[in-house]
């Protein structure tokens, strides 16, 4: 016997991609270039690796689930500086918890927050979306409701009926968005906060792409920044999730944090204490080093800008593409069914992209990812340029 909700989980997008390509042979005379997976491939900062090695002596003790004070202080300091939160509002003892990558935290948060005893529990999420949101809702005993993206790329909150807000217990947002790159501005975030107050739900903001943006003078705002602008010093009903994977090219470190409403985090800490997910001491030391440095993050952004410039010069006109507001994805419409385009590009050019329909669901008005593909500009600049040239050739 097992939890029957496990049967409701859908295959992960990359499982579906592998099944789509099964038996199809790409040209052997061309190296494979993958734009399918959003795994950063820029070099990891050397000083972070050194901090990891230097603190292996911490292996001789059990780490605390809530992490060392020094790590929580580094997290709160970074949040305050980056998102214009007044000094003293973020208390390291109450407002932040380290997590072993935001993927596990985004999933676990729903398990701790959804009230299974409340009939008609709903978890609202963007569509297209990061599939962890859907799995988290289903395994928490709630029903997912998909909010289709507007032409601008963020969920169409105006289309949500009052009854859906009333049944909502948890709203996942992703800003900057995966895969659209769209950003919710302060006014939109504050509107969601007011809706959360009115209808008694929690906002979980996935902000893992917040540090990859084109204009150094205009970083994307965040949910806690919106709270601060409202004078909401307790961050009630609001939590944010951040990661070192994209910001610092450290996906293998599995390090991030959740921060915000102290009462919600107290419950999440209790859950995590039983869940057994404390961050190893050496990982904490490496994380402190990463959160305390911005130079490597600026260099990272510069490299992504270079890649976007080069790729958009090749594909901008053929695919009608513009630079996204943030993140490292392109989300173009393609001239045929997304799965056909993906398979044809693989068969003829040995380039991997991800069908947009694999990242979305048909919530009743069609799948908003159909006839789109996701391209992750994570490879080295030269590889991204070659991939773009091959895609243009395939289009022609």
TrEMBL record:
Residues 31-378 form the Aminotransferase class I/classII large domain. Its cofactor is pyridoxal 5'-phosphate. Its EC number is 2.6.1.-. Keywords: Aminotransferase, Transferase. Pfam families: Aminotran_1_2. InterPro entries: Aminotransferase_I/II_large, DapC_beta/gammaproteobac, LL-DAP_aminotransferase, PyrdxlP-dep_Trfase, PyrdxlP-dep_Trfase_major, PyrdxlP-dep_Trfase_small. Transmembrane segments: none annotated. It comes from the Bacteria. GO terms for biological process: lysine biosynthetic process via diaminopimelate. GO terms for molecular function: pyridoxal phosphate binding; succinyldiaminopimelate transaminase activity. PANTHER family: AMINO ACID AMINOTRANSFERASE, L-GLUTAMINE--4-(METHYLSULFANYL)-2-OXOBUTANOATE AMINOTRANSFERASE. This is Aminotransferase.
